[in-house]
Amino acid sequence: MSKPAPLYNRLALIGVGLIGSSIARAAKAQGAVGSIVATARSEATRKRVAELGLADQVVETAAAAVEGADLVIVCTPVGVCGAVAKEIAPHLAPGATVSDVGSVKGSIVRDMGPHIPQGVHFVPAHPVAGTEYSGPDAGFAELFVNRWCILTPPPGQNQAAVDKLAAFWKLIGANVETMAPDHHDLVLAVTSHLPHLIAYTIVGTADELETVTRSEVLKFSAGGFRDFTRIAASDPTMWRDIFVTNKDAVLEMLGRFNEDIALLTKAIRNGDGDTLFEHFTRTRAIRKGIVQIGQDSPAPDFGRGHQTLPPEPLPKPYASDE
Amino acid sequence: MSKPAPLYNRLALIGVGLIGSSIARAAKAQGAVGSIVATARSEATRKRVAELGLADQVVETAAAAVEGADLVIVCTPVGVCGAVAKEIAPHLAPGATVSDVGSVKGSIVRDMGPHIPQGVHFVPAHPVAGTEYSGPDAGFAELFVNRWCILTPPPGQNQAAVDKLAAFWKLIGANVETMAPDHHDLVLAVTSHLPHLIAYTIVGTADELETVTRSEVLKFSAGGFRDFTRIAASDPTMWRDIFVTNKDAVLEMLGRFNEDIALLTKAIRNGDGDTLFEHFTRTRAIRKGIVQIGQDSPAPDFGRGHQTLPPEPLPKPYASDE
Question: Residues A32-88: pLDDT tens digits?
Fold first, then answer.
């Protein structure tokens, strides 16, 4: 079977953290681009990107990175995407496509859009994938396989440019869907932003109790709490920017959540077991749906490993030499 | 190396779901007991327990199960433990130890304690371990390895009986800690009950939106939401009973959580990125602590598997035969 020709000749990655470095690895593995040029704000990251061989070329500025690139993907936190767009604008090649990977799309369209020159395509994107780790070492080529990448092209964008970016994401394993930016922000507010806010909250709550020690919280976390701590270990800069830029949708979803938790709180206070049972039964169906469409593993406990049973005999008086 | 003699001659399991069947498997694997007799309320479960060979004997009633047993572990939902204790009381062997595995301990001491006859030891226990699956097929022998089992013996219990039950849990892999029942209920309210309540709530919230479809919630769940659905797929009967019986501690923790989420909500409303950043940085440390003491895996994304990149070339116009 012959290998496809690269979709783009030269990919410029601006920011090489978990997502940027995963794109680099996947694009290379799939032969999706002819060459990769990368840049990052910090010298340490640029050095590490070079050491890891993630790009054919590592340059010091975003302006230099985009020279001659036909695909530019901004992989910085959402809060600085506007400034990056402004910086790269004069250096973009005619006919190039500019995209991003931000978790918020309304603000990206507002902040980056006005800087994109005539003759350059602008196709914001959001791959809904990640782990709790950050930085160029954390990425891997399979991160996007069977995850969804949402494209939110502003009205009037060149359809061929949109289709080509969709083909790029498909080639590195993702499913692609197109959405209006505001709808994206509402969907992600409930499937991603609200869960993160709640996880960050409860982990903070647990850490500030006077009646339960931190050591107890850690030791007995397998009762459920530890699941929240993974999410609450995500990159603070990225998540600060998300909540600041997707304020309205997050506050809307928070309002709904607060109403619902008030109802369940009332049921607990009243000892209303029927309401609790009915609610807890309904939520099981959602889990089944997610596993069925391959968005999570059916393995118990996320497939977490278990150590084997200890082979040592017990100390006396419980051990025996018989 | 010689195998230790069994700690108990005859273990009676009343209720054989995820926890009961895991105890059966682990006790057998470790030679912790001479024989196992099991019972379950439903005929279907009793039949399945026999098919799986989880017990040496399967009987129809709890009263019959405890005859001649020197260790009785009640593995039913918390809400029926009192009734079970009342049923088995006249049939308990002198010198036997009665225990349980309930996630709430204050109500267990109150509901079971008065029924335990003189000359029988009462040592309530809570292994902090589980998965989102239920029933005798869901259990496995390694479930308790390196998890904590909390004993909450009422004052004045025979220390040798407490130590022996601790040895049993250690033999099947658990770490053991002793606590007062009320303190247990407070600790678990934050490390287990509140996380479950919040997960049940947000999964319900997401399912009732008019603006975001269920299909969208499922597809884009990898942004964080799917982590919550696992917990919200836990057994509804078990969790109804937990919230009804640990009302005070859960309401106390809910109050703290609500205060904290109000503070973060205000920071979002005001665009106060510094407060958000500071909070999100603090919570990372908790995750590190949990991984360090071996209560969760350091693998990204809980070690969830990723499919490999798709080998198929793309359709024209993106494919090439060169």
Answer: 999 999 999 999 999 999 999 999 999 999 999 999 999 999 999 999 999 999 999
Taking a contact as any Cβ pair under 8 Å apart, which residues of chain B between 115 and 134 contact chain A? 128-133
B142 contact A CB<8A: yes
Contacts of A172 in chain B (CB under 8 A): 309
Strand order in the sheet with B121-122: B57-58, B33-39, B8-14, B71-74, B97-100, B121-122
Residue B243 near chain A (CB below 8 Å): yes
ipTM of the complex model: 0.92
Interface of B with A in 223-242 (CB under 8 A): 223-234, 236-237, 239-241
Residues 20-59 of A with CB under 8 A from B: 26, 29-30
Between CA B272 and CA B274 the distance in angstroms is 6
B307 pLDDT tier (thresholds 50, 70, 90): confident
Structural domains in chain A?
Answer: 8-180 (3.40.50.720), 183-299 (1.10.3660.10)
Check A276 against B243: CB less than 8 A apart. yes
Q: Please check whether residue B262 touches A, CB under 8 A.
A: no
| % of chain A exceeding 70 in pLDDT | 95
